[in-house]
Structures are given as structure tokens and as C-alpha cells.
Amino acid sequence: MPQDKPLVVRDLRKSYDGVEALRGVSFDVEEGEIFGLIGPNGAGKTTTLRIVAGLIRPDSGEVRIYGLSPQTGDVRVKRLISYLPEEAGVYKNLTGLDFLEFIAEVYAEDGGEAQSMVDWARRVSGLGDRLRDPLRTYSKGMKRRLLIAATLMTRPRLAILDEPTSGLDVYHSVVMRGIIKEYVRETGAAVLLSSHNMLEVEYLCDRVAFINRGVIIATGKPGELKEKYGAENLEDAFIKAVEEAGMVGQV
Ligand code: ATP
């Protein structure tokens, strides 16, 4: 088992063509914790997650995953993480089952492990016989369920999930939240997820960071943040955190 914390993020800064997407983002994620990065459109959530996953480079700042940098192409990091993108093109002519088998073969050490990954993903996707149909026939929500199952079946020690329930109906959102929680309970892994659905995050996350305009304006357990801002729910707490940060009109 690797030493160090699942994730340490320190003072990330990133600009795109002069637009400052991140202006100094820092947070940690502990073992067995579901940590939510939450904020409005354009706040910098996807940029942060893509840097953590090693897909893009920050201009400055540091990321450590169990003490290792995701920026160096270190294969040990790739074995520790799994990334669910916000929008994923899937191979349209593969069936759902082909897709799961393809991913399992990449990650598994042997055929037995690949089979147990696929069996697990078949069950949690809830797609049943539709797994035999080509992906081009799937609805947006069905693709999302397949991708969440594929992301977790590789048993990452740090799962990085960008808006995991985006596009899912209420029923399947509840089911997928349950699967994420069960995964963490069973494996003791850590999850970093992003969302702009604060009510959902309140049920799912052990700790959250409010991000706005590329800066983190508050971090804590949902209950602590509600108490700190005298708010009934996280939405209210977010609004009050924006006011306190002097960022009214800058959301
Ligand atoms: P959403 O909730 O809408 O997905 P987000 O919090 O994930 O938003 P990011 O996608 O990280 O936000 O975007 C942060 C800022 O960086 C925005 O101003 C966005 O326009 C800008 N940005 C992101 N990606 C790029 C890019 N590839 N080129 C130029 N600007 C970008």
C-alpha cells in the first residue's frame, strides 16, 4: 500500500490565453474520503481535475498522488488513479460489453482479474441486456452509467470523477451515488469529484471545497460549512461564502 495521502494539491495556477482559470488552488483528500469540488460554471473544476489526472500541466503549483507527481507520466500514478471525464466520446460501434472488456484488458494483470472487473461493472451499470447493443444506440444517461462502472471497476485508489451524475435522471443519480459510496466503503479508496449540484454533494461528500473564479473560498464538512455560514443547505452556504469573499457579482 502506498504511503502518503491520496491527494495533495498546492497553489495550482493555470491560464488559458490570458484567462486565469485557476488562481491558487490548494486542498488535500484523505484515505476513504469522498471530496467534492463544487462551484458554478467556469469556476475551474474541470481544469483542476484534469491537472490532477495528469492530462494538462499547471503553470505553477504542485500535485502529489500518494507522494507521486501525475505530471511525469509515472506508470505507478496511472495504476493508482482512474478519471471519468465530463464528456466522453465512446467508441460508437463497440457494444457496452466490448467496451468494458477492452478497458479491463488494459488494466487487469490477468484474464481472471479482467473477468471479475467486467462482472462487477456489468452489475453496477444496471444496463442488463443493453450491454450487448452498440454504444451508438445508448442514451446520454446510459453512456454515463457505463463510464462510471468502467472508471471504478479498475479499482483506483483515487477516483477522479468529473460531474459523475450529469445527465442522469433522479433514479439513476441516486443509484450511482450509492455505488460511489459503496465503492469507498468496500475499498477504503479516495474520491475527488466535481459538481455544481450542491444538494447532491451534501448527501455524497464527506468534505467539500467551494470554488469560485479559480479560487477556493471555503473548505469543510457540509455540516460545518452550513453552521459556519448559518445556512440551511449548501447552496445557501455557497452564496454566503461568495458574499464573505467579497465576490458578489463575480460568480
Ligand atoms: P463547468 O461547471 O461549466 O464545467 P468548470 O468549473 O469545470 O465549469 P473549467 O472548465 O475548469 O470550469 O473552466 C475554467 C475557466 O477556464 C473558464 O473561464 C473557461 O472558459 C476556461 N477554459 C477552460 N478550458 C479552456 C480551454 N481549453 N481554452 C480556453 N479557456 C478554457
How would you summarize this macromolecular structure in one to three sentences?
The protein is an alpha/beta fold and 251 residues long.
Give an overview of the whole structure:
- This protein has helices at residues 45-52, 75-80, 96-107, 111-125, 140-153, 170-187, 198-204, 222-228, 234-244; strands at 7-16, 19-29, 34-38, 60-64, 81-84, 158-162, 190-195, 207-212, 215-220.
- With 251 residues, the protein is α/β, with parallel strands linked by helices.
- The chain has a domain at 7-90 and 157-244: P-loop containing nucleotide triphosphate hydrolases (Rossmann fold), CATH 3.40.50.300.
- The protein has a six-stranded mixed sheet, sandwiched between helices. A three-stranded antiparallel sheet has the order 2-1-4, with helices on one face.
- Strand 8 and strand 9 form a beta hairpin.
- Helix 3 crosses helix 4, helix 4 (111-125) packs antiparallel against helix 5 (140-153) and helix 5 runs parallel beside helix 6.
- It is globular, with a radius of gyration of 18 Å.
- The chain binds adenosine-5'-triphosphate.
- Adenosine-5'-triphosphate binds next to strand 2 and helix 1.
Present the secondary structure layout.
Layout: E1 7-16, E2 19-29, E3 34-38, H1 45-52, E4 60-64, H2 75-80, E5 81-84, H3 96-107, H4 111-125, H5 140-153, E6 158-162, H6 170-187, E7 190-195, H7 198-204, E8 207-212, E9 215-220, H8 222-228, H9 234-244
Parallel strand pairs: 3-7, 3-8, 5-6, 6-7
Antiparallel strand pairs: 1-2, 1-4, 8-9
Helix pairs in contact: 3-4, 4-5, 5-6
The structure holds adenosine-5'-triphosphate (ATP).
